[in-house]
Write a structure and sequence with these properties.
The complex is a heterodimer of chains A (about 350) and B (about 350). Chain A is an alpha/beta fold. Chain A is about 65% helix and about 5% strand. The chains are: A alpha/beta (about 350), B alpha/beta (about 350).
Amino acid sequence: MSDGARRVRAIRAMVTAHMRASYREPGGLFWTYGFPILMSLVLGLAFRARAPEPAHVAIADGPRAAWLAERLAGGREVVATVSPAARAENDLRVGKVDVLVVGEADGTVTYRYDESRAEARLARALADRELQRAAGAAPAVGSRDELVTEVGARYIDFLLPGLLGLSLMSTGFWGIGFSLAEMRAKKLLKRIVATPMRRSDFLASFLIVRVVLLVVELPPLLLFARLLFSITVRGSPVAFLVVVLLGAMMFATMGLAMASRAENPQIVSGLINVLSFPMYLCSGVFFSAARFPARVQPVIRLLPLSALNEALRAIMIDGGGFAEIGRQLLVMAVWLVVSFALAMRLFKWR
Amino acid sequence: MGYRWVVSAPPDFPAVLTSGLVKVFGETLAVAGLDLRVERGECFGLLGPNGAGKTTTVEILEGLLEPTDGVVQLFGKTWERDAAWLRERVGVSLQTTHLQEKLTVRETIGLFRAFFLEGRTVEETMALVRLTEKADARYETLSGGQKQRVAVACALVGNPALLFLDEPTTGLDPQSRRALWDVVTAFKAAGGSVLLTTHAMDEAEKLCDRVAVVDHGKVIACGTPNELIESLGAKEVVEVRLEPRAPTAASSATRDVPADAGPPPVDDGRDPLRASLRATAGVVSLREDAGALTLTVTELHAALPGILAAFEGHGEQVASLGTHRATLEDVFIDLTGRQLRE
């Protein structure tokens, strides 16, 4: 057997061992598969689009109240109730109704509402349109409504790429960083060094495991997104795969760097939390990073997860390709190279 | 099935040769100029208490640590120049290794097999360490002795010419220890060389052709177990406990001193007894440890009457008396004045 064939065999055996170990850990399975799917399911349902609320209108009791109620009852967009004047005033004040309609003695109608409330202005317009139409007014310009729900503008569209980025980060950090530190604490690293396997091949086996797991992890999430929320990758699929792969490798090498010196897994777990937390908040996972002040934007955009999430959204939602994500790819490549150099310099085999 | 240990190493070189080996950790001198020579086909024991520098020495020999100074050669090769060649021929079982919990015995040994160009089959290796019926059990479910045998199996699967075992049986029950001894004996019988560390004397006497007693990073004695025991000049050890004596005039003077005032008075009135014992024919040495007298004697039947006569002559009552053949433990105590397990 040639040395090259032996190296391939050793790497393959190591990768198989990692895979077996990870699939026999039920907790690990949940965090890789269950978590992103469960998270998008819960948040997607919580923020799903609802049927439009009708405008709530009160009619002050009086001689013309019944006439008004009959005319306002026709449309679906207005819910009108007749109340004594004092109670109607009160309902208006506490916001139970959006507008109060008073039929005056001279045949005109008075709308009482708070101009600063958008719902109130909308309710006034809807009630007035309903009244005018019932009274026989013909529209001056013919019009027709066409209702659309735009995929890409919903919260779940924003959320899903963010969750994908987040899961790439945590599997990279924990799968590489935590496992390696655990192996060092258990003297397993030392034991591997005492075999003919090359050290670089051993580290490479971890990165290969990340790629293999990616192939297994990604399709269920994408299928789920498509079936439940009709989310597809709108832009270049090649660019999407490159971004996912680069992101996975970036976080894997960062995990490698974090584990390069740590004597025990607790140190790495602390490091992971310290590094992940700011990115949870600032890198646009659950809400847009644009909400942070303009002054800190340049810093936020340099975070690894920010770059990954921006690139994923540019491709998945905005339908972009390589041309749109040049800066993000560069940021990710720099993180990858710097972490790799750091890990190679610092890594302790004992 | 027969054992098949093919020792593919160049002839004429010892399995292990070190000279002037030194390892310094910061301020600590862990190995202080150590010379060793392990012949091929030999089982060699490094014997010493915890902290004597055994593990550091072995890890240098295994190529896991670089010595601060000195020369290491395995089969005439060095780690600096021939690491790849040596890695293929050296089997290592570290003092503690926790292998992957979720892998089975067969998978774990198979993983290590994949690292080596040549070696024995996984099934063969499992049979050697008698784990065939545990082949599909996960590592996490194994007992301490079984885990240790998996570790040794991982060291054997590459069909090494030289096997390093660092405290292979520490913490194991007697049955597991014997099972491991059988594995080592079989490996040696097939021509393999072994270097093991231990602080269990029975293990060294049972397995090792030669032992080196190590203390404070140095070899203080080296030879076959028999040679070392004979170096005591005595083959038998007599341990005696005496009944407490009635207070004498000399000791009653200190009676008013509170119990925690300090060490007891040196003069317990037994100096004449000690002198008589040392003068008894056949007694080589006398030592006292925690109220017990330990005498080494050349021939038990010749010395014992004289010893008993000495006790009687000084009015001492013997509470208990035991004898055993001198062991490496006695050699170590004689050389260092300390117990091995201290």
